[in-house]
Amino acid sequence: VIVAENVKKDYRSDSVVVHAVRGIDLTIRKGEFTAIVGPSGSGKTTFLNLISGLDTPNGGTVLLNNRNTSSMSGNELSDFRRDNIGFIFQAYNLIPVLNVEENIEYIMMLQGVEKQVRHARVVEILDMMGMKGYERRFPSQLSGGQQQRVAIARAMASEPALILADEPTANLDSGTSTSLLDMMRDLNRETGMTFVFSTHDQHVVDKARRVVILEDGKNVRDEVKE
Amino acid sequence: VIVAENVKKDYRSDSVVVHAVRGIDLTIRKGEFTAIVGPSGSGKTTFLNLISGLDTPNGGTVLLNNRNTSSMSGNELSDFRRDNIGFIFQAYNLIPVLNVEENIEYIMMLQGVEKQVRHARVVEILDMMGMKGYERRFPSQLSGGQQQRVAIARAMASEPALILADEPTANLDSGTSTSLLDMMRDLNRETGMTFVFSTHDQHVVDKARRVVILEDGKNVRDEVKE
Ligand SMILES: Nc1ncnc2c1ncn2[C@@H]1O[C@H](COP(=O)(O)OP(=O)(O)OP(=O)(O)O)[C@@H](O)[C@H]1O
Ligand SMILES: Nc1ncnc2c1ncn2[C@@H]1O[C@H](COP(=O)(O)OP(=O)(O)OP(=O)(O)O)[C@@H](O)[C@H]1O
Ligand SMILES: [Mg+2]
Ligand SMILES: [Mg+2]
What we know:
Two copies of one chain form a homodimer. Chain A is α/β, with parallel strands linked by helices.
């Protein structure tokens, strides 16, 4: 469970202060399939970085399973993320010198998973992503949407309890987006894996069971369907 | 005018050959407002790189205003692009060490445009993009969609005859996408500036007057509306 209490984040440089997140109160519970929607610059990426512990707030608190991220050390936060959260970055952040398989298996390697098990998991998840046989390609040898799918595969490979996905369908066509979301929705239903998406894509909003609307760094609406 | 005749592009590495573009015949005339649509991996980026001269085909020819790109030197191609084509990259390709103003004015500087004229143009185009006042920010200090808008501003600042835009709305919300496309459509009507988009976004397809469908590196349909 993630609890954000009056969370604020400012960016300061020279004389300018940007209030990217201006007091968000939000609780994400286990098993949610939630979309955070808002215009470009409304604070979606900043908020996902705060609730994952990649960044700490200037005001308010973020509790990850009841632990305050501001009182955790850098190592504690990264260990927590490695074992609980799969993060899909808006710019993918694939490691250019590692091939597709090495990018995807990275977290499992840190967790000490055996090579054969890792390899089988990479093959399985690439197949789910419609990218069978791409194990040895490098990120620079992939199309934009293929890089995005490898970033998604990487986040899901170690089967974390929570997936935080920043604009996961931005470079995918309708067909690929829909099958990806159906696959995530099935995983959510079968395993209780929690999904939180930041998105502009109507395909994602349509499949979400909860939609949180961000405007200028504040959540202005919160709608649970069903 | 751009003429692609039976254009082919293969990527080779070790023992693998990828036929990214498998024989496209297509003519783009002055004043067009055209969308190239296709699933992830269908060859859109590769084709845009070929018709801009950023890359040369393995088979077939690309004629830019009747000149064959394969018989032009690297310098001739980059001079031609600088003076005729604004290219919007799928990954934006902003220069991290330059601020927003320096990124946008870059081409105009190469063309010898005076500082005051460049500055006025930067201010004007940032305002059109909904990003007034962002001149001195650096790319790392911008949201994903803000970086994308700076990449668009950069391509349009020198008012080239042709804009080639690779997924220009991928990280933009509906409202921003629609106002951007309306602005481009007005420019196209008033000045005859030619636009060719590679896209998955229905907002772009709806505004296009011509829609070319790519599948597996070939254009399978070509529909002119109106
Ligand atoms: N440098 C490269 N080396 C090897 N294969 C490549 C390279 N660049 C692209 N490809 C392959 O060529 C095909 C076409 O890629 P391209 O980037 O043109 O597709 P695209 O339509 O732009 O896809 P997307 O919508 O995902 O951006 C893909 O299968 C891709 O894997
Ligand atoms: N490092 C930074 N320094 C200064 N300002 C920043 C920085 N990162 C983001 N911002 C600003 O904070 C605000 C929120 O940015 P954020 O990236 O969270 O928005 P977003 O909703 O993810 O936008 P998009 O949909 O375009 O990705 C924006 O106005 C942006 O310019
Ligand atoms: Mg963002
Ligand atoms: Mg592409």
